[in-house]
Every structure is written in C-alpha cells, then in structure tokens.
Automatic annotation (TrEMBL):
Family note: Belongs to the alkaline phosphatase family.
Leader sequence segment: 1-27
Highest taxon, organism lineage: Bacteria
Keyword Signal annotated: yes
Keywords recorded for this protein, A-Z: Phosphoprotein, Signal
Pfam families per the UniProt record, alphabetical: Alk_phosphatase
InterPro entries per the UniProt record, alphabetical: AIM6_PI-PLC-like_dom (IPR039559), Alkaline_phosphatase (IPR001952), Alkaline_phosphatase_core_sf (IPR017850), PLC-like_Pdiesterase_TIM-brl (IPR017946)
Name listed for the protein in its UniProt record: Alkaline phosphatase
Amino acid sequence: MFSTLKKISLALAVSAASLAFSQNYSAHSHNDYEQKVPFWYALGSGAKSVEADVYLVNNELFVSHEQKNIQKERTFGNLYLKSIEKALDLGIIKDQPIQILIDLKTDAEPTLDKIVAEISKYPKITAQKNISFVISGNQPKPDKFNLYPDFIRFDYQSLENLTPQQWEKVGLLSLNFKQYSVWNGKGGLTEDDLPKVSAVIKKAKSFGKPFRFWAIPDGKTSWEFFAHHGVDFINTDHPKECAEYLSKLEQRTFKNTVFSEVYQPKFGYENKKTPVKNVILLIGDGNGLSQISSSVLANKGQLTLTQLKNIGLIKTTATDNFTTDSAAGATAFATGKKTKNRFIGVDSDGKPIPNMTEVLSGKGFSTGIITTDEIVGATPSAFYAHQKDRGMEKEIAQDLTKSKLTFFAAGGKSKVSGLNHFKLANSAVEVGESKAENLAYYLSENGVPQVLKGRGNLLAETVENGLKFLKNKKKPFFMMVEAAQIDSGGHSNTTGTIVTEGIDFDRAITKAIQFADENPGTLVVITADHETGGFSIPHGDMETGTVEGDFTTDDHSATLIPVFSYGAGSENFIGVYENNEIFHKILKALKLQ
C-alpha cells in the first residue's frame, strides 16, 4: 500500500507544494473517504480540509458512510493518519494548513477517546501546528471541550455564545445551509434569502472562527457566492474542481477603474449616398463576444461600440486549422484570401498576395498602421509583409523598408532598421502636427506596456493624431488599428487585462467614430481576428464594475466573431460571412472591385 501511495504522493508533490494559500477560503472535501484516492486526491488538488465519517466498532475506528458498509482495511489510521505521516515524510505537507474534520457516527466520548489514542501514536503529526483535527457529529457537550488535548478542536454547530475557554477549543463553526435557504446553486439567491444568509454569515464570523455551511449546492456559482461572502471552507464532493476554481478566483475576478467615455454617434450618413473615401479598420486581437461583453459590463453597461447599429458575424477558420491564429486571420483581412496559420501575406502555397496597403497605395491612397504590438507582430505585418512564418521577424522587418505605408505607430523599435525614408515622431501630438511624407512613431523599444502597466490613453491619442496626419495629406486613406493585448489577457487567462484592453480599444473606437462623423465618406469597420481563451463571464457586479471571467483554454477558439460597422458603406458588412470577405467588402465600398 505504501509503495502505491508513495508514487501517488510524488506525482502530487509539485502540485501541492506550488499551491498558494493566501485566500481566506478553501475547498472542504466533503465525505472525502468516498473519493477513489482519499486524502491524497484532496491534498494534491489543493483542498485544505477533508472530512471522514468514523465509526467505533470492536475498539477499531472505521471510515465509512454507513456502518453496514464498513470494510476492515478502511480504518481511520490507514486512510488518514498513515497518509498524513507519509505526506510529512515526503515534504508534501510543509507550512500549509490541513484540517481533518472527523464526523463521529458512534457514541461521542468512547469514539473520541479512541480518536485521541490513535492520533497520539503519531507524535510527528501532533507536533505540527498546521495540522488540526476537528471533531464533528456526535461530540461532547461544550463544557467538556477542555478535557481533550491541544491537537483536538471541535466543530461547533450553533450561533449561541460560549465561554472564552470553550471558544478556545472550537476550530470550526458549521451550520446547515438548508435551514436558511432552498437555493439550488443556479442563478442567485432570492431577495428574501440573500439578506438572511448574509446576516447568518456575518453573525457566525463575529465569533472569530473559520466558518462552513454544510448541505450547500455544489457548483461554481455557489462556490463563488460563498467564497465572496466570507465562508472559509466550501463544502464540495468535487475537491479538485472546487480547489482549482477557488485558487484562481481572484485572478479571474477584476474590479475595473479604467473607463471609456461613451460617444453617441450622429448617424449622419443614413439615407445618403455619400461615396466612401476613407476606411478605418479596427481589429481587437482575440476580442470575441464575451470579451466585448466584459468591457461593456465593466464600463457601466455601455461602450461607444455598443451604440452602433450595423452588426455582422465572421467565420475565422484557417485553411489548415479549425482555429486561426493572428497571422492567418490578419492575412485574410489584408489580402482577401484565407491561408495557413503562421503565414503572413502569402497564400496556402506560400506565394505572396497583394495586401490592402499595396492595392490602395496603387490607387492613390495614403495608408497607415497603428498597433499596441511590435510593428513586426503578426497582425500589423500582414498588411505590409510577405513571409511564410510569423516568426521570421528579420525578414518581416526588411519587408517594412519596402512597404507602401505612409505612416505607422507601434512598438518594437529595436527590431527595425533602414527606414531612412520615414521621419520619426517623438509623441502622438507630433504625429498630428507632422507634414512629413512618411512618418513612423515608436511607442516603445520592444513590447508596448499594457494598460494595467501604465500605458495610459496612448492608443486613443495615437489614433486621433494618426487620423489627423492622414487627413492632412488631402488624399483618401486606409488605416488599420490593432488593439493587440486583449489577446494577451486571453492567453494568460487574466480577466483584468481583457477588460481594460477592451475598454482602451473602445476609446480608440470613439476617436474613429468621431472622425467619421466629422468627415463624411469615412467607413469604420470594427472586428477581431479570432477569440482567445474560450472566455465566459459567469459572475460580476455592474454597479462596481466587477467581472469574473472563466476560461476553457489558453489558446484561440473558433467561435464566430462580431463585425461592427459605421459610416458610408457600412450596410455592406451585415450578415454572416468568411473573414476574408472583409477585404472584398472594403474594396466594394470603395468601388474598386
């Protein structure tokens, strides 16, 4: 048995040792002994508390849900005490707290006396201050709590006060949730139940002891509710899923303090046949519908984006993959042809395809790119480069020197050289004031900082001034704007990055919509190359701008992507179509097909 346990222990050691125990809540493995691997499964999952039903039969402590199902090898010593000692020997249990909740199913005092005698055989365990044994079920009266050794604590199941000496022996306070609510864990508590349950939790916590409800609904919605309402131990029959959920709950939950001032579009183009002269294509990298929704909810329920009327959907698959990456997705937008993942500006055979900036510059247009990525990143490079792999940064940078771009603003200055025909601007304001023939503005030497790391309003300011620069050319223009780091939040499964980068994207969208209102004949198209993270929004609070995100992957997904459009020609972008149709619809709006 111990050789098997040692293998299990070693496999779990890295997981258990890496767990963060900074939260005030933890999974409690209810009826832990019914797991396929009792104790070890909960420990490796990150649960801080396990529960065992114990019967005293023929002077032996057995662990079982019912006495009739007792098996002679499943003793309290075998399943728990020996396992705890082995975990100590292997260094798996170090400083993290571990609670063993022992539910006595037979007469209190003889069963507890035997519990004390068995635990006392393991001085290595009793010497550990972080391992506690808490007695539940049939237990002595509180006036007898102090008769038991220090390693024994009690699960008090009442809101009646005790003496200070009795409270010292209480390790846990537990109540039956069903006495206060019949909530099934779906949606939220009723208006009547919520204040009642909240008051009970507040009263229980006032005694200064860890608190647990038993008989709670067992699922993510209830886990989130009880964790955020002060319950210390969350009862669950799914310790791995619950512990993993709770361990990342704070990372996934974000309270927003970055806002986009919502602009009300004028819709002056409606019922007019103004020819399209300028096109602004805005791409939120990784910005699926849930990402957009999170920014809406965190921005008090509205964005400038959500004021728009014309909405479509695009399908994003690559030619060689069910899901696309940014290279193939942007290439579809830029060239009108789907291609393989990682390909930049080339077809599925690796042959270069004319891109939007090349086509339009040949028609007398000025062209520009703005991105919060490096200029050699996959999305921006699809609009000027032709390479068979997005990782070929030197070759992509060389393509930039031969591009037809009039203007670009991006990170990654250290990746580029030989742009002698581009004058360098040193600020967004300088971009708007420049009379240069060709202009470059580097936002950073390498990667561009995220909003949460101090970027401020740089994207919107650059868009505003980039549009001013192109307008001053007195020529029609095309500009691609990428909000690159929504994608980073999806890959890292970080809700705060998704929310703030999405709101920052909306500030850039606002500048584009305002420009379209002030300059009739401007078409604005807003979309994304793909969704990232399999992101969803299970919980939150719109009043406080709080959003909890959840994720199914750290990669891209193949979900349909929204397309919003505004201005002259925007009616062409309604419906459901392939991503490469964006290219053709833009040319159609410009009457260049």
